[in-house]
Amino acid sequence: MKGKFLLLGLGLLSTALLIALGVSWLHAGVSGGSPASLNPVGTGGSAPMSNTQTAHEAYTTLSQWLSGWAQDGIVVALSCTFQKEDKSPVGWTFQVYSPTSQQLANVLIEGSDIWVLRELAALYPQQPLALDTWGMDSSAALDTWWAGRGQLLWSQPQAQTLALHLGTRPEGGLTWQVTLLSAEGKVIDFQEIPADATAP
Length: 200
Description:
This protein is an alpha+beta fold.
């Protein structure tokens, strides 16, 4: 059973990474204006993403939109990626789910802008993130990783992409998953940091 949860968690992380990397690719291929394939519905020493919108801030923006998409809409995943050489704005990708309509949507939040990347039918019921127990914001998770070993690893030439994903541990409780990838997609580092309000 533990292996099943582990595979599910890795699958969700892989999906989140692919979505976020795809968003980065779209930014790189568009100069000015809004990406044609998206649907806008709204207007040195420091760690990467330290000056960008935090996950809590992005969630506040999402919450203002979510009930209009579905009254029973819930968040089942959220993630963000930062590429070393990419100067584009960093956004947060949320996966939201409506139990009534059995629909999933991938939504990108960039500042006050909201982009619906994809909507699809859910093949099975989704488990919501227990956001009422969410304590640690993304900035604190990054600072923890950066102070421990991130600063050294990020300075390595092969380090290219940093990904953050908020998920649920198999035994319960929210966790930040920090993944550092090379340009070839090889995992250089992975760390889980408890994100619950009661976590030490």
